[in-house]
């Protein structure tokens, strides 16, 4: 997968250990809004936790398990994270995840980052499908999926476990890069 993907608005870059502090700061600033959906974002989340997360993502990239990118605008502001997880390599299907610093939400950055990553993922990874699985209560992430051109397919019963509780989820999909709106 490409280490850097960019367009006229955004730069997606493979994680570097030096990203840890920006990731930590963004997570802490956005904790109230995104912690309901990220079970690992607990009150005890620390800079060490962020460093461990970045190290894991770098290792996963090296193993071709997951491709996680920092999202920055052209000015260099850290906006958030978008990642592609290869969870079904036998069938060439991946899942995409994302979160944004609350300071930069409702500006189209997350939708743009998602579209940018999807547009570059299908051919090099030989994908036939990319899924977005979103908790049924997570309206903001559902809107990002819809605005990016993903197709809603179904409600999946007990698909996610959020903070130990089974949760229904909506699944949105891309079946080719041309689907992006």
Distance between the termini: 22 Å
CATH architecture: 3-Layer(aba) Sandwich
Percent helix, as a range, is 25-40%
Task: Give the rounded overall mean pLDDT.
Answer: 94
**Extended strand count:** 8
Strand fraction equals 35-45%
Q: Helical stretch count?
A: 4
Give the ordered list of helices and strands. EEHHEEEHEHEE
Oligomer: single chain
Regions with pLDDT < 50 over 5+ consecutive residues? none
Indicate the overall shape: globular
CATH class: Alpha Beta
Report the structural category: alpha+beta
Taking the sheet with the most strands, its summary is: 8 strands, mixed
Strand order of the largest sheet: 1-2-3-4-5-6-8-7
Q: What name does CATH use for the topology? A: Aminopeptidase
C-alpha Rg (nearest Å): 15 Å
Number of domains: 1
Q: Could you state the CATH homologous superfamily?
A: Gcn5-related N-acetyltransferase (GNAT)
